[in-house]
Amino acid sequence: MAKKLGLALLIWCALLSSCQLALGKETSGKKEGWISLFDGKTLNGWKASENKDTFSVRDGMIVVDGPRSHLFYVGPVENADFKNFEIKAEVMTKPRANSGIYFHTEYQKSGWPDKGYEVQVNNTHSDWRKTGSLYGIKDVRGSSAKDNEWFTEHIIVQDKQIIIKVNGQITVDYTEPENVHYPRFPGRKISRGTFALQGHDPKSVIYYKNIMVKPLPPRSTGQIKVAVLTGGHGFERKPFLEMFDSFKGIKYVEVQLKDHSEIFEDISDWDYDVIAMYSMTQNISQKRKDNFKKLLNRGIGLVALHHNMGSFQSWPEFKKIIGGKYYLKATEEDGVEPRGSTYKHDIDMNVRIADASHPITRGMSDFKIHDEGYKYCGFEKNNRVLLTTDHPDSDKTIAWTRKYGKAKVCTIQLGHDAAAYQNANYRRLVARAIRWCAGRLN
Fold first, then answer.
1. By Cβ atoms counted within 10 A, which residue in 93, 125, 278, 415 is the most buried?
2. Is the domain of 289 the same as that of 366?
C-alpha cells in the first residue's frame, strides 16, 4: 500500500511540475511581448485580395491553396501599422510550393504587393530564390527547411536592419543603405505597414500557424531625427537654429509650414523620431488631425515650444495633446469661458526646478532667464510639472511632460527670442526634452 501511495505521489508531483513549467513558459512568453495575429479558428483580422478562396482555416492552420492572392493583416494589434518588430510563423510547404511573408506593406486589391519587402517561402519550387531570402534584394540559393515538415521563419526589423532566421539560423542580415532605390522593386524600402501572406499560384500549397508578433522600440543608437515646425509667428530664425545646431546627436530639419499643417497630409514615409513644434498655425483638416494622432500613437515624440501653445485654437484636442493652451481670445471650453491669455515681453524670470527627479530636469538647478511670460493659460490637470516661476506676469507652471497615446510629450512655455535661445539652461532643457521624447533619456 505504501509503495502505491509513494508512486501516486511521485506521479502527482511530476504532473504538478509539468503544469508549473508550462504555465511558466506561457507567462514568460507574455512577458516577452509576443502577440498572436491568428486565432487558429478564423481569418478575423485578415483580408484577402483577389481570389479570396485561396485562403482558408483548417485544424488551427491558415491553408494557402489556389490562384494568386495575398492575405493582409488588418487587425487591431498596433492598428496593423508596424515599423520595428519581430514576427515568427510556423510554416509547412508541400513539394514545389512557393509563398512569402511581406512586411511594411499595405492592402492591395490585386497583383503582387507594390509596397514592402518579401521574405521568401520556397523549398523546392523552380524559383532559385529559396526560403529565408529577402526576395530580390538578398537571396539565398539553398533552403535549410524541408517540404512536409514544420519550420519556423523569424523576421526581425529594427531601424534599417533586417534579420531573417530559419529554424533559428540566420539566413539574411541586411542593413538598408541610405536613399535606397531598386528599379525593379521601387516599393522595397524600410517604412512601416502591415504583413501579408502570399498565395503564389494554384500548384502551391502552404500551411501557416502560430503567427506571432513582438513590436520593438527603435534602437537607442544613432542620431535623433527631429522635424522642427515653424510658421504662423515671427521669430529670430538664425539664433534659434543655431541652438539646434549645438545639440550633439540630434539631426534636425526645419519645416516651414506654408499651409498651416501640411507635414501631416501624408505620413507614409515618415522618418522622424521627434516633432519639435515652434509654430503657431491654425488650420488643420480632419485627415491631418488623424495623421498627427497616428504618429503620436506610434510613439513619435513631441516637444511643444513657447508660442506653439497658441496653435490650432479651434481644435480642443490639441490642448489635450500638449497639455496647455494660450487663449488668443476668451473661448468657451467645457462649459467655462476663460479669459484670453496675456503676454509680457522682456521680463527676468526666476525659474524653479519643481521636479528634480524627472530625467529632463535631473541634475539641473534653479536658474534665471530673460524671456516672455504668458499668463491666464489653460493647463491639463494630469501634467507632470517640471518648472515653475513666481513672476507676476507669468503663470506659475512653465514646463511639463505628459503622455498622449504612445508618445512622450514635453511642453516648455519659455523660448521667445535670442536671449532665451542663448541661455545655457534653456538649451540644456530643450535638448534633454528632445532626447526624453525620443526615448533616449531615462
1. 93
2. yes
